[in-house]
Specification:
seven-stranded parallel β-sheet, 638 residues, 49% helix, Rossmann fold, 18 strands, binds iron/sulfur cluster, alpha/beta, 4 domains
């Protein structure tokens, strides 16, 4: 690895002028190589600027094993595949075969395009025009990947009628199976040395393997998780169960479409679908009305069923009737059999959510706009992951800039069920003491005090004047974000952007392009956002990002730890908040030339004993409580 990553090594020789060798990158590459060689798990925290992608890619290739690399998002997958992989292929491994795998709904279903041609189920001129373009593209594209359709807006409903989702796929019985983009993706993966996936696809696959429902990924022998701090949340989703009014509505819509296409099942089947819609509407309207998430503990589900038994039975009966009606058709086209299979699955999941009492699951309800979601989430995924992942494979590498709390991996290991692993926190590549100033204002009230909001707005306005805007103001709640946004907007002359007023990517683009812009946002901007350079010179965080204790999943996790006689605050709530704070502050310094101010308005970080854990888990920023110091820092030449 020293020949590759060391001073004057191959990487340095291949990179454009100005590239410098990084000692943490070499160290990480050696650790990853050793993990592959000794067949052991590795946890490695590597800060921004380490160059960790190459530090795991090259040892993975040299291992000669088929390795899955799992990243947090599709855009990180793209970046890996279009930037890092070609570099490695060009300079180190020309024969390397790499495949990218994404969820099926990212790809076009050819069969749906052919079935839709000439059928009047498109809405308006815009959809007709998009469809014509998609039809032409279908003949030319090699991948069928939606990202190639730059003209199609993210929210276009048309795509949901044309994508290759499992629920509507007839598999090997489809006439297009051999030409299908999904078949092609699977074949590329089966032939690849490296397979690049995202965490969602990885855990969807792992959950399918657990239930013996087949698999998505071909066999592999090792896994590298980048952005590994996100794994518990994603795994919890995929090992849980969820139904929603949308899922029922899609089933009804697809049933009608299948009938239209196959010209089967006429009046009586149509009546079954109409009845299902009525029953879905009735049932979901009866669920508790409050917005947001609320608990559906066993007692409340039993009481609900007692009160509304006939509506529940009506819904389950309507699903069963749909299944039976399709089974009784004289000819059973595959498209309708798929609908029957989905109706049966939905019935089983609804029964699980309302009638089961699994101890390791927390049951909850969420209303979000027009959506009503009912879910069961595993309270603790550690035993599932230990069995399915860490005991099943001999080499799992986990890396991120935020894995350790006070320099230790105990929290991550406990949450994910990792028993034995090599652990390392690599030294930072940036000079944080010089590049960043951490400011904790003196004199602000406690964040829980009513006077906090106006005082925090004053403090933010003062800070923005010193940094000439160019700031992210990150909040832990929408209510506080909106209140402070209104107060600050009236006080400053900078362009102030607010989350929710435009799609996330559009807001980010506007922030990057607008001199002096300030963005007010909540948790979705705490990670995965990269704005290098002066345009982002200040990150202000309103309060320590403890998870909302009334959230049903958080409450169930706290309760479980307490029942086990453990200290849930110390072992779960603090470490989770520490990692979230590291992520949020991590938005500021993205390059060696970046400089700026970090402010936390929650003085519990200095008043409370646990505040020390937050401070010692952050990089060694310079620290001040004096705003004059902030002014001097901003005026100093970089
Ligand atoms: S195999 Fe499935 S996804 Fe592929 S074209 Fe056929 S129906 Fe569509």
């Amino acid at each position: 690895m020293a020949d590759v990553f060391g001073p004057g090594g191959m990487i340095e020789r291949c990179m454009p002028a100005g590239y410098e060798h990084r000692r943490s990158q070499l160290c990480m590459a050696e650790l990853v190589e050793e993990a592959f060689h000794k067949k052991r798990h590795l946890l490695v925290e590597a800060g921004t600027g380490t160059g960790k992608t190459l530090a795991y890619l090259i040892p993975a290739i040299r291992s000669g094993r088929r390795v899955v690399i799992s990243t947090a998002t599709k855009s990180l997958q793209e970046q890996l595949f279009t930037k890092d992989v070609p570099f490695v292929q060009k300079h180190f491994a020309p024969e390397l075969k790499v495949a990218v795998m994404k969820g099926r709904s990212n790809f076009l279903c050819r069969q749906k395009v052919y079935q839709m041609q000439g059928r009047p189920i498109l809405k308006g001129m815009e959809e007709l025009d998009w469809f014509a373009q998609i039809r032409d593209w279908e003949r030319l594209t090699e991948t069928g990947d939606r990202t190639e359709l730059t003209f199609l807006p993210d929210e276009a409903e048309l795509w949901s009628k044309l994508d290759a989702r499992r629920e509507t796929c007839t598999g090997q019985k489809c006439e297009q199976f051999e030409r299908c983009f999904i078949t092609a993706m699977h074949r590329r993966a089966a032939d690849a040395d490296l397979i690049i996936v995202n965490h969602h696809l990885f855990f969807a696959d792992l959950a399918l393997r657990q239930d013996d429902f087949g698999s998505i990924l071909p066999e592999y022998s090792a896994v590298i998780f980048d952005e590994a701090h996100e794994i518990e949340d994603v795994a919890s989703d995929y090992f849980g169960r969820q139904i929603s009014n949308y899922r029922f509505e899609e089933l009804a819509r697809d049933a009608e479409q299948a009938m239209r296409i196959t010209q089967q099942g006429k009046a009586s089947l149509l009546r079954r679908v109409t009845r299902l819609r009525e029953k879905v509407h009735e049932f979901f309207n009866l669920l508790p009305p409050q917005e947001g998430r609320s608990s559906l503990e066993p007692g409340s589900r039993a009481a609900f069923l007692e009160g509304y038994r006939s509506s529940y039975d009506g819904l389950m009966g309507a699903l069963q009737a749909l299944v039976s009606e399709i089974a009784a058709l004289p000819s059973k086209p595959e498209e309708l059999l798929v609908v029957a299979r989905r109706a049966a699955e939905l019935r089983a999941e609804t029964a699980f959510l309302f009638e089961s009492n699994e101890k390791n699951y927390v049951y909850w309800l969420e209303r979000r706009g027009k959506g009503v979601f009912v879910a069961a989430t595993p309270i603790d995924v550690s035993s599932i992951l230990r069995e399915q992942l860490f005991d099943a494979f001999d080499t799992i590498v986990m890396t991120s800039a935020t894995l350790a709390v006070s320099g230790r991996f105990d929290f991550l290991k406990q949450r994910l069920g990792i028993q034995v692993a090599q652990e390392s926190v690599l030294p930072h590549e940036f000079d944080y003491g010089r590049q960043a100033l951490l400011y904790i204002p003196a004199g602000l009230p406690d964040v829980r005090d009513a006077a906090f909001v106006p005082k925090a707005a004053e403090e933010i306005s003062r800070l923005l004047k010193l940094t000439d805007g160019r700031a992210f103001c990150l909040f832990t709640s929408y209510t506080q974000m909106n209140q402070i946004f209104e107060l600050v907007r009236a006080r400053v002359r900078f362009p102030v952007l607010l989350q929710g007023t435009a799609p996330r990517m559009a807001l980010l683009e506007r922030f990057r392009a607008t001199p002096g812009a300030v963005l007010f946002a909540t948790s979705s901007f705490w990670q995965g956002v990269d704005v290098p350079g002066e345009q982002l010179s200040c990150v202000i965080i309103d309060r320590l990002p403890f998870a909302v204790p009334t959230d049903p999943v958080v409450a169930a996790r706290v309760r479980m730890l307490t029942e086990e006689g453990r200290n849930a605050f110390a072992e779960y709530q603090i470490p989770e908040a520490v990692l979230a704070l590291k992520q949020g502050f991590g938005r500021l310094i993205r390059a060696r030339t970046d400089r700026g101010v970090l402010a936390i308005l929650d003085n519990r970080i200095q008043r409370m004993r646990y505040g020390k854990i937050f401070i010692e888990s952050l990089p060694e920023y310079s620290l001040t409580r004096d705003i004059a110091e902030v002014q001097r820092f901003m005026k100093a030449p970089s």
